[in-house]
From TrEMBL:
This is 4Fe-4S ferredoxin. Keywords: Membrane, Transmembrane, Transmembrane helix. The keyword Transmembrane applies. The keyword Repeat does not apply. It comes from the Bacteria. InterPro entries: Citrate_utilization_prot_B, NarG-like_sf. The chain crosses the membrane at residues 111-131, 151-171, 223-245, 260-280, 292-315, 321-341. It comes from Mameliella alba.
Length: 363
């Protein structure tokens, strides 16, 4: 498989180095049971650029292969497959993003950019609420429902369009075929179970403890994933209640939006800040070093979104609502707008890679 000549390919050096290492791994085959990247790798004899990008997006950076490898430095082969695949993966997300280059900018300056966007957007929301007081109850007494919809609907649709365009290009480059239900089912099961973070034998991965196994990253990732889905379901249920049933916010503690949103916010906050803590313990040389700041910014932004949502719920009915609402909306809007350029994109491309892998296993 090869990339469309009309589009710019990832760094030639990055692809070439990953190909060199993948070919050595393909000859050795010691790590066959570690994760889905290795069966996909061992099924090929010649690796085009699309094959390398597909393998890179199957990799979950658990790092088990690195600590089991006999060809890492000081061996002359100097293998560091987790880093090589991470570099390709990050380059591919930037390549598929529109407009190109924003992903690389976020990866280099993610923390500063996220902080500036959250603060700037929060100040704009706060100024708007102070200058044009809204009429309504709860949050709508600070910012009207119409204003929220007018701002957040385009902010949600924009990244979805960018990601859809990127996924279409990715699917073409990796040779994707028409998708069937069985492919989606297998991919969803492996994604939902985080099967590729179990070390192949269920003992966990080597992300933050070197050659010792740990389940901490898997647990933190699961908490973040399910927390995010619960928060999204909370917002969706509130939208349906508003438009279909005529039930407007604020909602009570035992309402569906709160029953989904409160545990979702707790899981999202604990999981995201847990991932940030694990990232501080992990060896940066086994990942995409140029993207470290962007990856940290992403998990901190997720944690901030969950935390500010919980605090906003806790201070309901007090004078702190306007400031906390502005901060929370700033975090949410920043998360949406940066989705195609932050590590949030990995959820979409990795799922696509798992679907393509399911197709190849059935071929």
């Amino acid at each position: 498989m090869s990339f469309d000549a009309a589009t710019q390919s990832p760094s030639t050096d990055t692809i070439a180095e990953a190909r060199r290492q993948v070919e050595i791994c393909n000859a050795c085959r010691y790590c066959e049971g570690f994760c889905d990247a290795f069966p996909a790798m061992f099924a090929e004899r010649v690796f085009g650029d699309g094959d390398i990008v597909q393998i890179a997006n199957l990799c979950h950076n658990c790092r088990g292969c690195y600590y089991s490898c006999q060809y890492t430095e000081p061996h002359e082969f100097a293998l560091n497959l987790p880093q090589a695949l991470a570099d390709v993966r990050v380059d591919s997300w930037d390549r598929y993003g529109r407009p190109g280059g924003l992903g690389a900018l976020f990866q280099r300056h993610g923390v500063a950019l996220s902080a500036a966007l959250v603060a700037g957007i929060a100040l704009l929301f706060l100024a708007q609420a102070m200058l044009t007081p809204a009429n309504g109850e709860g949050f709508y007494a600070v910012l009207s429902h119409t204003v929220m919809v007018a701002i957040f609907l385009p902010a949600f649709l924009f990244p979805m369009v960018v990601l859809a365009l990127g996924l279409r290009a990715y699917w073409r480059d990796v040779g994707g075929a028409p998708v069937r239900w069985v492919h989606l089912r297998r991919a969803a099961l492996r994604a939902g179970q985080l099967k590729n973070l179990d070390g192949g034998q269920g003992q966990g991965c080597n992300f933050e403890k070197g050659d010792r196994y740990s389940q901490a990253r898997r647990h933190a990732h699961q908490a973040t994933f399910w927390g995010f889905l619960l928060c999204f379901a909370s917002t969706s249920s509130g939208t349906l209640m508003h438009y279909l049933l005529g039930l407007e916010a604020p909602y009570g503690l035992l309402s569906l939006p709160k029953l989904l949103g409160v545990p979702g916010g707790l899981l999202l906050t604990l999981g995201a800040f847990g991932l940030a803590g694990l990232k501080l313990k992990a060896d940066p040389q086994l990942g995409a070093q140029k993207a470290w700041g962007g990856e940290m910014a992403f998990v901190l932004l997720l944690g901030l979104t969950g935390l500010t949502g919980l605090i906003l719920f806790a201070v309901s009915g007090t004078g702190a609502v306007p400031a906390m609402l502005a901060l929370h909306l700033g975090a949410v809007l920043t998360l949406f707008l940066t989705t195609p350029y932050s590590k949030m994109a990995h959820a979409f491309y990795r799922f696509a890679a798992l679907v393509r892998d399911a197709q190849q296993r059935q071929a």
